[in-house]
Amino acid sequence: MSTLKLLTDKGGNSVYANCVDGHYFPPFTLDVEYATHLENIQKMHIRDDDVTVVGYAKSGTHWVWEVAGMLLAGSTNYIRDIKESQFLEVKEVAALDALTSPRLLNTHMGFRFLPSEIVTKRTKVIYLLRNPKDVAVSLYHHVTGMNPGEKFVYNGTWDDFLDAYLQGNVWFGSWFDSVLAWEKTVTALTELPVLTVHYEAMKADPLSNVQRLSEFLGVQRDSEFCQEVVEACSFKKLKQAKDNVKGNNLRNAWKPGTEGFYRKGEVGDWKNWFTVAQNERFNALYAEKMKNSKLTILFK
After folding, report:
1. Residue 93, Cβ density class (10 Å: 0-12 exposed, 13-18 middle, ≥19 buried)
2. What are the residues whose beta carbons fall under 8 Å from the beta carbon of 59, sequence distance 6 or more?
3. Nearest-10 Cα torsion for 204, 208, 213, 219
4. DSSP strand E in 100-229: where?
5. In a 3-state reduction of DSSP, which class is residue 274?
6. Which residues on neighbouring strands pair with residue 4, listed in sequence order?
7. Looking at CB atoms within 10 Å, which of 83, 146, 248, 258 has the fewest?
């Protein structure tokens, strides 16, 4: 395992990553080496009622995690803990083991790094997909919105960030590699229960997608309750809950005036950032990388 610079702006500020077997992770500081942490995660015990939310960074994991949590609990009370309390990349196994059931684990990691018992226990997996152009814009604001710190500072341009994103030189690596690896996994492991949720579809019709989640989770909440979940998990209300309800020890991670994890929550914001040339470049790369994929990506 090594720590390396992924992005460096013209002022010399850098975003670092923990690099394990060629895969890039945010430079979290844990009590063990990061490679050891990943090994421990792979070996951790999975419970029969665990659920895992998986998606490339900025694909809606906070939103869907809150929705799934309410469905499992049968209550629209907000989970007081933040999503990161069950985030595999940063929570050590002892802390995860201490959580009460049902656990709602979540991650941006590829399948190869997840607990091996997810397969043997046939753990329910909610897999998230989002337009990678919107993902790029959201991730750019994430890394530029963080408070100056030893390994997180980046004040570079959108142009430079997009270059790095398309080359896979960002946290969690290439979006293309990530989604294609998951497609390969789901195709091979046909007995693994996986529900794919598209960010754009959930924005367009949140009620039917909350009902899909309810059915997948086996809780069978009625339409009235699902509508209450939709309203409680609107972007505006989740943002308010983050500020007023949750015990959020990450508030100081963000620069004053930035929005943190909840920026816009919109579909199609990429159109405000991509130039014509950048869009053409992206489309050409997408056509090449995804030519053999059967994944449906909802470009809006």
Report:
1. middle
2. 128, 129, 130, 135, 199
3. 150
4. 104-107, 124-129, 194-198
5. coil
6. 17
7. 258
Following DSSP, what letter does each residue of 181-215 receive, concatenated?
HHHHHHHH-TTS-EEEEEHHHHHH-HHHHHHHHHH
CA distance 10 to 157: 9
Q: Name 287's Cβ contacts closer than 8 Å, sequence gap at least 6.
A: none
Q: Which 8-state DSSP code applies to residue 218?
A: T
- Is residue 147 very low, low, confident or very high in pLDDT (cuts 50, 70, 90)? low
Phi, psi at residue 97, to the nearest 5°?
-65, -30
Just list the catalytic residues: 108
The structure's pTM equals 0.92
Give the per-residue pLDDT at 142.
84
Instruction: Answer for the pair 116, 43: CB distance below 8 angstroms, yes or no.
Output: yes
**Residues 298, 131: contact at Cβ < 8 Å?**
yes
233-247: average pLDDT: 75
Please give the mean pLDDT across all residues of the chain. Answer: 89
Give the tokens for residue 135. Answer: 């993902």
Q: Three-state DSSP class for 122?
A: coil
Helix (H) or strand (E) segment spanning residue 242: helix 235-244
Residues contacting 267, CB < 8 A, separation 6+? 131, 134, 199, 200, 203, 204, 300
More confident residue, 17 or 44: 44
